[in-house]
């Protein structure tokens, strides 16, 4: 068991910001296209956090061109360059799956001050 913990600690990212469900974040991902590499940002609201430790994932949802798009990001993945918190959200639930059925102002999350 200690061997697993030491391996997990070795590959964890130490400089991650504290993010919670309801926060609007900008996740920058390294994308490889052929021989080239570039960074692409995905900005949206965190609707779920799962697992823990090195297996931790966040589900980020955004609406672009009136179509909802969700991506699941492994937080400690080497392809993730950075995670920035754009604004903090005030929510009372651990999972915000109810946002999937809402559009426009109804899909907004109040800001925590």
Features:
single chain, 113 residues, SH3 type barrels, 5-stranded antiparallel beta sheet, 1 helix, 9% helix
Structural notes for this entry:
The chain has 113 residues and is mainly beta. The protein has one domain (2-97): SH3 type barrels (Roll). Helices cover 9% and strands 43% of the residues. It is built from one helix and five strands, in the order αβββββ. Strand 1 and strand 2 form a beta hairpin.
Strand order of the largest sheet: 4-3-2-1-5
Largest sheet: 5 strands, antiparallel
CATH topology: SH3 type barrels
Provide a count of the helices.
1
Give the radius of gyration. Answer: 15 Å
What is the percent of helical residues? under 10%
Name the assembly state: single chain
String of helices and strands? HEEEEE
CATH architect. name: Roll
Please count the beta strands (DSSP E, at least 2 residues each): 5
* End-to-end CA span: 41 Å
Describe the global form.
globular
Structure, briefly:
Helix content is 9%, strand content 43%. It has one helix at 2-11, and strands at residues 24-33, 36-50, 57-64, 67-74, 80-87.
How are the elements arranged and paired?
Elements: H1 2-11, E1 24-33, E2 36-50, E3 57-64, E4 67-74, E5 80-87
Antiparallel strand pairs: 1-2, 1-5, 2-3, 3-4
